[in-house]
Write a structure and sequence with these properties.
mainly alpha, two-stranded antiparallel sheet, about 170 residues
Amino acid sequence: MFAKIQISIALSTVLGLSLGLISAFSDRARDNGDIFIINYDSFDGDVDDISTTTQAPREAGYIDFDEIMHVCNASFVTPMSNVLQFNTTGKLFDEKDMTSMCYFRCFFEKAGLIENFKLNPDVVRKYMWPATGDSIEFCESQGMDEQNACVRAYAIAQCAMMRALTDARNNPMV
């Protein structure tokens, strides 16, 4: 008789625990269309990993430089080290690297910085530096004798970047 009582207590305990686990699993939050629940056990804190189908509103004339970079790099594969080198010094590691020159032509044209080998002063002033004096005209004249479109556009872009870097060094922001 005592053994039957112990077995019935053990069964009721196991049954109670299993019902508790079942209800705990069913209480988990679900994506109901309005919210998205992140599994915090695997979330690394990088909110860029969270995707949405809704684009954030953007100002008129917004230029998505990341998208342009990916598009141009798909056609003209250029290492990020070359891009960083150009952005910090205005030069490439290898000044004869035609692929990187074509990448920068693609980038500057798709960003609207250069069109038909002419710098767009409004875009240059908004995103690169407040070009003053004859900088725009001087840079547009660079590579004028060059027959290769990539080399010519790169010469203009290089001049613009060198002017931007020089102006930034001479006029530090406070």
